[in-house]
Amino acid sequence: MNLMNPDFQRLMKDATRLTLAGDLQAATTAVQAALGGGVPAAAAATDMRDVIDVEARGARLRAGI
Questions:
Q1: Measured between alpha carbons, how far apart are the two ends of the chain, in Å?
Q2: 16-57 pLDDT, tens digit each
Q3: Alpha-carbon torsion (8, 24, 40, 46), positive or negative
Q4: Where are the domains positioned within the chain?
Q5: DSSP string spanning 7-54?
Q6: Looking at the whole model, is its pTM more than 0.70?
Q7: N or C: which end of the chain has fewer CB within 10 A?
Q8: Beta carbons of 30 and 17 less than 8 angstroms apart
């Protein structure tokens, strides 16, 4: 017996697909919509001017900082 809401299930499946495709902004929007915090379509559109794309690397923290 499947007790999950079909819309929730679909949105979470979409979020998984989008995450695997590397579109984390769209995946986050899908998760928010699944949890009931739906985002208007205009706000969900990706605006590349707001994207900061950097290469991450590890850093060690020193005590006392």
A1: 53
A2: 999 999 999 999 999 998 888 655 454 555 555 666 677 777
A3: negative
A4: 1-65
A5: HHHHHHHHHHHHHHTT-HHHHHHHHHHHTT----HHHHS--GGG----
A6: no
A7: N
A8: no
